[in-house]
Amino acid sequence: MNSYKAPLRDINFLLTDVFNAGALWASFPKLEGSLDEAIAGAVLEEAGKLAGEVLAPLNRSGDEEGAQWRDGVVTTPSGFREAFATYADGGWIGFTGNPAFGGLGMPKMLAVHVEEMLHGSNSSFALYSVLSSGASLAIDAHACEELKTKYLPNIYAGVWAASMCLTEPHAGTDLGLIRTRAESQADGSYRISGTKIFITGGEHDLTENIIHLVLAKLPDAPAGPKGISLFLVPKVMVAADGSLGERNALSCGSIEHKMGIKASATCVMNFDGATGWLVGEANKGLAAMFTMMNYERLTVGIQGVGCAHASYQTAVAYAKERLQSRSPSGAIAVDKVADPIIHHPDVRRMLLTMKALTEGGRALATYVGAQLDIAKHGVTREQRAEADTRVALLTPVTKAFLTDTGLESCVHGQQIFGGHGYIREWGQEQRVRDVRIAQIYEGTNGIQALDLLGRKVLGDGGKAVDGFLSEIRRHAAEPHVEHRDALLAAVNELEDVSRWIADRAAADPRQVGAASVEYLHLFGYVTYAYLWSKMASAAQANLAADPDFYSAKLATANFYFERLLPRIEGLSACLRGGAACLYELATEQF
Amino acid sequence: MNSYKAPLRDINFLLTDVFNAGALWASFPKLEGSLDEAIAGAVLEEAGKLAGEVLAPLNRSGDEEGAQWRDGVVTTPSGFREAFATYADGGWIGFTGNPAFGGLGMPKMLAVHVEEMLHGSNSSFALYSVLSSGASLAIDAHACEELKTKYLPNIYAGVWAASMCLTEPHAGTDLGLIRTRAESQADGSYRISGTKIFITGGEHDLTENIIHLVLAKLPDAPAGPKGISLFLVPKVMVAADGSLGERNALSCGSIEHKMGIKASATCVMNFDGATGWLVGEANKGLAAMFTMMNYERLTVGIQGVGCAHASYQTAVAYAKERLQSRSPSGAIAVDKVADPIIHHPDVRRMLLTMKALTEGGRALATYVGAQLDIAKHGVTREQRAEADTRVALLTPVTKAFLTDTGLESCVHGQQIFGGHGYIREWGQEQRVRDVRIAQIYEGTNGIQALDLLGRKVLGDGGKAVDGFLSEIRRHAAEPHVEHRDALLAAVNELEDVSRWIADRAAADPRQVGAASVEYLHLFGYVTYAYLWSKMASAAQANLAADPDFYSAKLATANFYFERLLPRIEGLSACLRGGAACLYELATEQF
Predict the structure, then answer these.
(1) CB hemisphere CA count around B547 (13 angstroms)
(2) Is A442 an active-site residue?
(3) Model confidence pLDDT, tens digit, residues A239-262
(4) Looking at chain B, which terminus has fewer C-beta neighbours within 10 angstroms, N or C?
(5) Do A577 and B562 touch (CB under 8 A)?
(6) What is the mean pLDDT of chain B?
(7) pLDDT tens digits for A479-505?
């Protein structure tokens, strides 16, 4: 099953009915009125075609062939080169890029949907693209004009690709421990030496050059995270006229054998005195990387949604076809030997769980995308600052909650198939394997939870979360709000829990990490409740225009509020179990 | 990481301190005093050695090589043949088998621990063994003396293996739909024709013969599940003197490419007029299969525990070694660049979750094993009947809850490794892939939940569940019971929820399937609360004898009651969302 159909109608609903994207875009001076909902629709349709016709057919073969390493050369699976060329020709890699260097300058609120289609059709392929987009963002934000002029146009055009080289064998979460060194040279360049691991797209055959962004330490750098600098290190040296010269002193030592995303090359990269250039200021490399983090983490969250939605599509098709036992309320397909399993309540529960979580996740990605756009394009400084705060607060939620629920959804999507879900046949087991990485990379979900609770919620004394909850309450105060009472009760619960933790965290610093994952999930369910209330309210307002479509939104919202939101009661109760019980066991007793 | 260490001390705690196995075994006339706790300990130590030294080293290579099919011949991975011979020589396949035919007649309460070691060290290998044990159980219970005499000794001895052939392409959950036919022959045998899929160990090179138990329909059989008969169909014909003759008319058409348990051959089996013999009565094949179901489902549950425990062992070792960031309460390994991650609260939370769920699952398997033994060996008819009811009630819980929490645990065990968990290196990703099947086969966990709620709880008007809850309350009424109040509150909640569902199920038959999975999970957490209360009470009573060991049990129990049991609040709240919201969406609207 390699078919994939982009959820264009659902996206249109979010952009038009729920978030009024047209008005938002019209308010951005830099867009100069170049984008409206009709154009956006055409663009997304094009992306959907690419995903369905070019990328989806390579998803399973890519998994089976995998990326191959031989003597430092990485070969991507059959068809990936051609697909990447087609994709690059469409301008998609520079979709949100800076127009001054050939990017299309499209808003992130639109890009999130393209990214969902990439991940839904072919997660391994998606990574080659989003890494280039992400790295070019850091270059655009922090590199000098010379580097930008030299590298950005070709990255945007997909002539060259890019990678991010952060992790080292002993330094993953704790990047302060990295050992890669950079020594300054007389000509202003640096010599980079060290080993990086888990480098997605560190080497491949899709482009003639790969531009690595590498974290390294200068000789006199302070210890820890404040002594990290960022360098641009091309695989092949680029002359002043833009022509390619000789190979730089770097190589791919091997690639990893992984659970999933097998067509994505995960590389060990050896830098052996490779020539590089400083991006941004010395010792401020982590800050420069964080520019792109909010974008990348949102993209990883979207991987959860994309895989979940693809799994849902396949599961729905199967559940409508597969005949097994009779519906509990009496035979439905009376002319058949049994009823389609979609009529069984537990199968419906799984499908609706997938549907409600996926559409909630897509709504959150759209919302955060819009906030990123406002932070960049908003007319007033206050607007931009508020959006920036909202993005910072919601980025860890988006990354972790969309991927945790993404795994849950893909597991349901596999379970619906019974034994047929465990074998390759329908591709459902690949979704589970592919989506699993999204909970791990780009900062594990445990780290996201610490970031949310420790830094974003408690770190500013609760201001950011208050701002968000005020927005939800303003929504709830509007006339004709669906699920108002349940939403407000959930917001109150989140506020209670936040206060409960804050009251204890000062006295016991372990309390933050002890509560963080359950807190993030609670935060996620409350956020989805907000978005499902918004979606249901929009659906109710438009019901007459397309009863079939909008009534499905209302029904899914009902399911969410009846059967999923109450999960917060368990999360809250477990979290209040506190930190002490985590430390009763001595380390040796594990 | 192929190391595996059997949890002998923990098993001894369960057998001796918690369940007083010695006294139970002494009460069984058939065991004739041949088994006590010391002998059991020696037996388990032997099994642990086999698992650690013979099976664990083949776990990863087995996954990488996989079972191979060529022209109908299935080759198991390197080392499997020798390992199977060693295992069979030890008498393990007939461990619980009937002594009249060469089995060892050991109690299931002991066998569950051997099975955990099998699954913990090598799930794929385990399947070849447990299928033979399970099939021989059905033969022993239902076949005529001639078949038993002819086949059981060689199966027990591991000279021959066995398989269960139930599923067909269009008939998985709904076995009433099977199309495989059996025609009676003049000599009393039958000709079996049809195709079976997902046949574990349907073909392999471990033994010179494979005895298939095949579900098929006689020409005049009633439609549906009441028209199914069970047949014994050997791969190679066996002469009256026990010597092997020619091949029977059956063959392995292909094997599946699966997410995990890759060293286990999952076969398409074609029966082309193969000769077989009826086992038990005509049209009562499903009942005959159900004899072994309680055993097999318990074993599959144990797969969840085995994989989870193996993942836990590896994760603990890694968490003690891996240095990353500082503990929130200040540096601990002051001479190192960072602290071992086991000091971080969220890592401890994941490890303790694995530990509490795994030990709870092991306790439940032990308890159900003991009940199976009482049902078989109990002195009075009342004892046997009560145990039988308890087994019937708890079998679906054990199968589904141990495997659902098994997946959760293995996912935690992978997550603790960050990126290193996603690659093959430490084997953590293989555990996730291997354990996943246990939620699917032997009746999906959704089907287990329906069996629990529909048949076992509501089907007898709540008598079985009342009996179990009375047992828990009797325990809680004893002096010196740990976690008494929390346990009783949880029992009350389960009772409330059971009543809530019963009140609605009569009016809305969809309510059972709508509530069943959350109900089963709730049931599982309450059952673990009972067992953790028992374990903590036993640990408290013995604390002085081994403070280090028993205090760890007390601490883990505290964690369970503080941080895991409260999950029931969410389950209860979600379940009460009811059935109606599952059916608001029309089928076409999915």
Answers:
(1) 2
(2) yes
(3) 999 999 999 999 999 999 999 999
(4) N
(5) yes
(6) 97
(7) 999 999 999 999 999 999 999 999 999
Helix count and strand count (H, E) for chain B: 17, 11
Quote the pLDDT of residue B295: 82
Residues of A in contact with B511 (CB under 8 A): 345
Q: Determine the Cα–Cα distance for residues B395 and B297; give it in Å rounded to an integer.
A: 7
Q: Alpha-carbon distance B375 to B143, whole Å?
A: 20
For B499, the token pair is: 């009543």
Crossing angle (nearest 10°) for helices B510-542 and B567-575: 160
Contact B558 A569 (CB under 8 A): no
Specify the pLDDT at position A173: 87
CB A327 within 8 A of CB A343: yes
Distance from CA of B175 to the nearest CA of A (A): 9
Pairwise CA distance, residues A582 & A564, whole Å: 28
Domains A8-152 and A448-585 share a fold: no
Catalytic residue, candidates B442, B482, B493, B518: B442
3-class SS at B525?
helix
Name the residue among A256, A440, A576 with its Cβ closest to that of B418: A440
CA-CA distance, A530 to A19, in Å (whole number)? Answer: 13
Measure CB to CB from residue B582 to each of A348, A437, A576 and give the nearest one: A348
> What is the dotted CATH code of the domain comprising B8-152?
1.10.540.10
pLDDT in tens, A63-87: 999 999 999 999 999 999 999 999 9
Residue A276 Cα distances to A211, A213, A249, angstroms: 10, 9, 10
ipTM above 0.95, yes or no: yes
Residue with tokens 């708890």: B394
Instruction: Identify the burial level of B75 via C-beta atoms within 10 angstroms of its C-beta, where 0-12 means exposed, 13-18 middle and 19 or more buried.
Output: middle
Cβ atoms of B346 and A516 within 8 Å: the answer is: yes
Closest-CA residue of A relative to B339 is A174
**Among chain B residues, CA nearest to A517:** B346
What CATH class has A448-585? mainly alpha
Could you report the per-residue pLDDT of B381-413, keeping only the tens digit for each?
999 999 999 999 999 999 999 999 999 999 999
Question: Is the overall model pTM greater than 0.90, yes or no?
Answer: yes
- List, as one string, the DSSP characters of B296-333: HHHHHHHHHHHHHHHHHHHHHHHHHH-B-S--TTS-SS
What are the tokens at B560?
């369970």
What is the assigned CATH class of domain A161-282? mainly beta
- Inter-residue contact A205 to A76 (CB < 8 Å): yes
B418/A328 Cβ within 8 A: no
Domain ranges of chain B: 8-152, 161-282, 448-585
Question: For residue range A378-398, what is the model confidence (pLDDT) as tens digits?
Answer: 999 999 999 999 999 999 999
CB count within 10 Å of CB B334 equals: 8
